[in-house]
């Protein structure tokens, strides 16, 4: 069967690649065509558009790139029509994907499945109407989403969290600290990992604050987790005298060897938690107190980090918008590194998060259901 997938950012590319590999286990004749990235391409099929040419964030950036965004959408519609897939599988990225879902449902009438649900529970709850109209099945990867969808009388399947799978099968799982620093030509010195996001705008806003916060911890070295789609040259302006290193393609390895991490909110917060790395979660935005108050009224959730959302309580400290200063980050980092009670409290929270997420198997469970649904239709 023919599977058309759309992933608009780095985490979507990762999760979609594992789903594609799992689909091949169920359907050896599967053909893939997709908007995505290098990880999906490594599984096979045709990459129509790379996510790095689609990942715009924030109102101003979206308006500035409105023409390419509209062109991407129009090209996607045409490509789907020409290829005539058996199913459309969407991975997060709701502003783009829900419009494509509407088009596909109205024009082709083929099944539309969502793997990694849009975060409707955070804001734009009205989009549930589009889910009902244009999406046949949602495969949730966050346990608390089930109650949200049930409140809206929409059946959703919790299949587990793919990050659990990805960490369970990661290479270098038994690597020692000495082996890691030798492999990446790093000093034999404890590490503070800096994960500043996967988009240029996120990195521009967050990374300078992270570096300023961590540079006072002279007994540690700072190592940046290089994001897919971001080049070494794009990180260079932030590195100062060259005492800060960037490692690419080794985020899990870096986290596993780090004493603490400063993490921009997103999937990386969950990765750090499952690898038992104490972390400060930060997300800088322009606009200060005003923007903070606006978002506080718009957002329908108490937390922004996946760790706290899953635990449903404060496990990690979140420093958002005007609270995200180098001084505040440094203070929290100091607690994590030097206060045993704080460290142990965070570790207990991480244990609860892992328990709630459950066992590995998310891509397998989702792929089995997708293929079974399609065969039933055929």
Give a topology summary.
Blueprint: E1 2-7, H1 10-26, E2 31-36, H2 38-43, E3 46-50, H3 59-64, H4 66-83, E4 87-91, H5 94-107, E5 112-115, H6 128-134, E6 137-140, H7 145-151, E7 156-158, H8 162-168, H9 177-183, E8 191-195, H10 200-214, E9 221-226, H11 232-235, E10 245-248, H12 251-256, E11 260-264, H13 267-274, E12 279-283, H14 288-298, H15 306-311, E13 317-320, H16 326-338, H17 340-357, H18 362-377
Helix pairs in contact: 1-18, 4-5, 5-6, 10-16
Give the tally of β-strands: 13
Globally, the shape reads globular
Distance between the termini: 10 Å
Q: Report the β-strand fraction as a percent range.
A: 15-25%
Structural class: alpha/beta
- What is the architecture of the largest domain at the second tier of CATH? 3-Layer(aba) Sandwich
Largest sheet report: 7 strands, parallel
Give the CATH topology of the largest domain. Rossmann fold
Q: How many domains is the backbone divided into?
A: 2
Helix content: 40-55%
Oligomer: single chain
Strand order of the largest sheet: 3-2-1-4-5-6-7
Q: CATH class of the largest domain, please? A: Alpha Beta
CATH homologous superfamily caption of the largest domain: Glycogen Phosphorylase B
From the alpha carbons, calculate the radius of gyration and give it in angstroms: 21 Å
Mean pLDDT across all residues, rounded? 90
Low-confidence stretches: 56-65
Q: So how many helices?
A: 18
């Amino acid at each position: 069967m023919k599977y058309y997938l759309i992933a608009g950012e780095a985490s979507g590319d990762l999760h979609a690649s594992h789903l594609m590999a799992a689909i091949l286990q169920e359907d050896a004749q599967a053909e893939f065509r997709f908007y995505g990235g290098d990880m999906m391409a490594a599984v096979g099929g045709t990459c129509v558009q790379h996510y790095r040419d689609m990942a715009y964030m924030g109102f101003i950036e979206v308006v500035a790139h409105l023409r390419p965004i509209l062109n991407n959408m129009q090209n996607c519609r045409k490509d789907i029509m020409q290829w005539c897939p058996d199913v459309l599988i969407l991975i997060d990225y709701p502003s783009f994907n829900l419009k494509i879902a509407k088009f596909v449902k109205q024009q082709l009438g083929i099944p539309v499945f969502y793997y990694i649900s849009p975060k409707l529970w955070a804001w734009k709850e009205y989009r549930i109407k589009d889910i009902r109209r244009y999406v046949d099945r949602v495969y949730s990867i966050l346990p608390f989403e089930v109650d949200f969808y049930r409140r809206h009388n929409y059946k959703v399947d919790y299949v587990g969290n793919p990050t659990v799978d990805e960490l369970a099968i990661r290479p270098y799982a038994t690597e020692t600290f000495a082996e890691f620093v030798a492999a990446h030509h790093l000093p034999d010195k404890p590490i503070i990992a800096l994960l500043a996001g996967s988009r240029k705008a996120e990195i521009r806003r967050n990374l300078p604050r992270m570096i300023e916060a961590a540079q006072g911890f002279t007994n540690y070295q700072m190592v940046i987790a290089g994001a897919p789609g971001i080049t070494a040259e794009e990180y260079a302006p932030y590195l100062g005298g060259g005492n800060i290193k960037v490692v690419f393609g080794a985020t899990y390895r870096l986290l596993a060897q780090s004493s603490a991490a400063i993490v921009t909110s997103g999937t990386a917060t969950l990765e750090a938690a499952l690898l038992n790395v104490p972390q400060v979660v930060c997300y800088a935005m322009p606009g200060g107190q005003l923007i903070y108050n606006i978002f506080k009224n718009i957002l329908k959730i108490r937390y922004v980090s996946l760790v706290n959302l899953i635990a449903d309580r404060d496990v990690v400290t979140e420093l958002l918008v005007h609270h995200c200063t180098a001084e505040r980050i440094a203070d929290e980092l100091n607690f994590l590194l030097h206060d045993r009670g704080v460290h142990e409290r965070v570790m207990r929270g991480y244990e609860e998060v892992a328990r709630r997420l459950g066992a590995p198997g998310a891509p397998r469970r989702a792929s089995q259901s997708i293929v079974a649904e399609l065969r039933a239709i055929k």
